[in-house]
Amino acid sequence: MAEIVAFSKEGRVGVITVNNPPVNALSQAVRAGIKAGIEKGIADADVSAMVIICEGRTFIAGADIREFGKPPMEPHLPDVCQFIEDSPKPVIAAIHGTALGGGLEIPLSCHFRIALSTAKVGLPEVKLGLLPGAGGTQRLPRVAGARSALEMITSGVPVAAARAKDMGILDEMVEGDLKAAALVFAQKVVDQKLPIRRVSQLKATVDSPTLFEDFAKANARKFRGFMAPFKCIEAVKAATELPFPEGMKKEREIFIELHDSNQSKAQRHVFFAEREVVRIPGLPDDHPTREIKSVGVLGAGTMGGGIAMCFANAGIPVKLLDMKQEFLDRGLAVIKKNYANTVAKGSLKQEVMDKRLSLIQPTLAYEDLKDADLVIEAVFEDMAVKKEVFTKLDAVCKPGAILASNTSYLNVDEIAAITRRPQDVMGMHFFSPANVMRLLENVRGAKTLPEVYATAMKVGKKIGKVPVLVGVCDGFVGNRMLAKRTRECGFMLEEGALPWQIDRVIYDFGFPMGPYQMGDMAGLDIGWRNRKAKFDSLTPREQKNNLLDKICEMGRYGQKTGSGFYKYDEKRNATPDPMIEELIINHSKEVGIARRTITDQEIIERAIYSMINEGAKILEERIAARPLDIDVVWLYGYGFPVYLGGPMFYADTVGLKKVYDAVLKYRDSVGAEYWTPSPLLEKLAKEGKGFYSK
């Protein structure tokens, strides 16, 4: 077996080669190996300079995630970095692929840095609620200046080699054979007796005395709710004000503070949950799947067009079917416009757009879907319409084709039952806009074959989605939980709250917007249509809570009509509407509810805890296999704040006893039919456990 870190000599250059597949992660063995390699080079009189280089497809791409959450093992990365920098002999980092996190902190502690032009470097720790903790916040401002360091560290976004060279991170950008180029560079350093440049001895440049305040203010909206970006700013500022050793102490203090915070724990949970969610409990990772070479999409509206784009973006040909040529023309025009906007922003090349558009073939004939490996219908959300479509698909599609419904709440088993192939039918619930939103709720029916839903999970990943496997029930995971929040918010309007108070509280909690702003943006007529479809299954109180009916009957459908719960100006800026306030107050009188003051805390509890209780029921019923499945649905489909980790993780942070006690409190005040604790929630709360610590 090859050494994880090898030391060899090429002439008078010591070559330290890291070989820790797949991404040369900075495990304890890699850290120890690099340090040992530097020691060998220093001790060998024949070595005049050293090069750190990596085997495989990338340089060091970050920390070893297998060591996350475990006690740190020596040598610690900051010590290794300092040891490299203190070397009396020049050390050159030779970078290819990606140098991320600690994988950039190692080169920053080297005396020179070269990279292939295709390389990228970055410090993504902020995405885990952390900051670079091995000198990244202290060394980067010293080579790249404080402003560039702030941009890189607070965004976590890697920069390409050319940009890194302009910033001063790289000394040279090379083509071709990296090792040969590194040896030439090392020889030049020796021959020309170039002075060793220790980054810690450089001064961090600041281009404005108010840089840090201005930067925080300019990014306040983007960083809203997150602790780490502001702490990163504080650490970079320290690099401009303190001597290096004191700056390192400050960085370490802030790192520990962040590491121990609930936010970082939540963000690390999200990191692992996103990777784990694609694995299906009970199925091996290599379970057989079907090959998807071509796709059919029914319905060229907003949803169908967006779904077609997802597959075209992944290079998979799509037949887009609708009933009338005018629908197809309109749908294709929207797709072209979406692509053209991306080209205009510089995010897509024109030739790539043309190639993607060529993969979407419009058709008016079901017969044209006969060879598709996967067909997804995105037609009107009505069971009779869905059944009609699936009957036609069943007749024309080839054996083994997967037939999927993009339904957001209808019964997939009922749809499957009208086909002769229920084993090949499932739900694939995309979120709007489908070409942007990352969540894909894959719904397995009672008869869906494992290889069918395993294929849907694999395809979801291929088209850039975060796929989650769920079971059949009304609304599946996301919309089933959302319905409880919607109900409680509606009840709170009757009892004393106003839409703008609820929206403010939900926004301050961390959601991108509140439920009434969201309703106005999506179109209140959609919710109204769903309410009418489900009216007979509602409780008497829910039926009487007809505020939405009254608002929609006035033709107020939200932003698109200039008014909904709010009034909108020509730029779609919202202002509270006194008429709606009056409507709500009168409604409370009509239904005989005395209005009272509703606190912000009550809004949080009733909106969020009602969802957590429902999430516990979903776990009991095995609609979702794990709490992380629920968290991922809410993080990627509904804008649950990342720094809270998803509703189930958040429940553990709050403490299930506290959630359970609140459920009992609202059972007494709102009613047992709405607030009965899930047996799972009750059991865990009484045992002092959480959803993740059973």
Describe how the helices and strands are arranged.
Layout (H helix, E strand, L loop, with lengths): L4 E6 L2 E6 L9 H16 L5 E6 L22 H9 L5 E5 L2 E3 L1 H8 L2 E5 L3 E3 L13 H9 L1 H10 L3 E2 H7 L4 E3 L3 H14 L19 H8 L9 H14 L2 H16 L2 H15 L18 E4 L3 H12 L4 E4 L3 H20 L5 H9 L1 E4 L10 E4 L5 H14 L5 E4 L6 H6 L7 E6 L8 E6 L5 H13 L3 E5 L7 H18 L3 H11 L5 H8 L1 H11 L5 H5 L2 H7 L12 E3 L5 E3 L1 H13 L9 H21 L6 H11 L9 H8 L1 H14 L9 H9 L7
Parallel strand pairs: 2-3, 3-4, 4-6, 5-7, 6-9, 10-11, 10-13, 11-12, 13-14, 14-15, 16-17
Antiparallel strand pairs: 1-2, 7-8, 15-16, 18-19
Low-confidence stretches: none
CATH class of the largest domain: Alpha Beta
Which strands sit side by side, in order, in the main sheet? Answer: 12-11-10-13-14-15-16-17
Count the DSSP helices: 29
At the fold tier of CATH, the topology name of the largest domain is 2-enoyl-CoA Hydratase, Chain A, domain 1
